[in-house]
Design goal:
This protein has 95 residues and is an all-alpha fold. It has five helices and no strands. The longest helix has 26 residues. It is elongated.
């Protein structure tokens, strides 16, 4: 029987230590935020520099947020959302 990527990675995820699982969750959350920001920025036809100027944040910080290499503060997210005519929301997880 052929195994797919999801099967292989699910097996690996089950063997992760609690610490590794926590790091993985933080990474996934940062990645989700990054994807949303990139999508909204592109939908508005903005470069990173233009978004940075609109919200008063350094372009390098926008880049790091979009790469998921930093976790923005709530205030930073609010400033970015405002510049993108968007809201920051907590959404219940689908279970």
């Amino acid at each position: 029987m052929a195994r797919n990527y999801q099967d292989v990675t699910a097996s690996r995820r089950e063997r992760l230590s609690p610490e590794a699982k926590a790091h993985r969750e933080v990474f996934e959350q940062a990645y989700d935020i990054a994807v949303q920001i990139i999508g909204l920025r592109e939908r508005h036809g903005l470069t990173q520099g233009e978004l940075a100027e609109r919200c008063g944040i350094d372009q390098g910080d926008i880049s790091r947020i979009e790469r998921g290499s930093t976790s923005p503060t709530a205030r930073t997210l609010q400033r970015i959302a405002e510049a993108l005519d968007s809201d920051v929301r907590l959404v219940a997880r689908a279970r």
